Amino acid sequence: MKTVADYVKTIPDFPKPGILFRDVTSVVNDAEGLKLSIDELDKLLQGVEYDVIAGVESRGFVFGTPLAYKNSKPFALVRKKGKLPRETVEATYDLEYGTATIELHKDAINKGDKVVLIDDLLATGGTMKAAAKLVEALGGEVVKMLFLIELTDLNGREALEKYDVASVIQYEGE
Predict the structure, then answer these.
(1) What 8-state DSSP symbol labels residue 128?
(2) Cα 163–Cα 168–Cα 172 angle in degrees, nearest 5
């Protein structure tokens, strides 16, 4: 029986020499890989009480939307600055060479909502920490953070230590 990891292709030296890139597009390009990834993420939600799933642009949308559908929950989009048409809250976070800003519609999360945040990859945790700030600024509570892949030696869990973090696959190395 195949696992989600069997569908992940590893691309050496991308985007720069020495990096082993874990490609999730190979998971979603296969119907069984996509189904298995959603089923495995869903298992990580067993026993979690939540109201909303929020996904981080863009691959968080790919995994979060079917998960929300499967569990009859609404889906909120966490997007790059300037992509959402209504009133938003925003958070800026550090990148390796600069900063980035993400936004969430103010009406996407209600005060008291229990929120699951999802993205494809946990590396350093900066993006997801910023997404959690958005949820909390709106009065929501982050009850779980889900990732398909986690790069363990980049210590993203440390940046997210106050949250319940789970991932389907863990890899050492970049």
Answers:
(1) H
(2) 90
Supply the residues annotated as catalytic.
59, 96
CA–CA gap between residue 27 and residue 37 (Å, rounded): 8
pTM score? 0.96
Pairing relationship of beta strands 141-151 and 88-95 according to DSSP bridges: unpaired
Distance separating alpha carbons of residues 86 and 102, to the nearest angstrom: 14
Query: In the chain, what percentage of residues exceed pLDDT 70?
Result: 99
SS3 73: coil
Q: 49 CB contacts (<8 Å, ≥6 apart)?
A: 114, 143
At residue 82, does pLDDT exceed 70? yes
Query: Closest Cα to residue 82, out of 98, 108, 101?
Result: 101
> How many CA atoms, within 13 angstroms, populate the side-chain half-sphere of residue 25?
3
CA 9/CA 64 separation, integer angstroms? 21
> Residue 144 in 3-state DSSP?
strand
- Which residues contact residue 165 at a Cβ distance below 8 angstroms, ignoring those fewer than 6 apart? 122, 144, 145, 147, 156, 157
In 3D space, the residue among 84, 82, 92 whose CA is nearest the CA of residue 137 turns out to be 92
Kindly calculate the radius of gyration of the chain based on its CA atoms and give it in whole angstroms. 16
Distance of CA 111 to the CA centre of its chain: 21
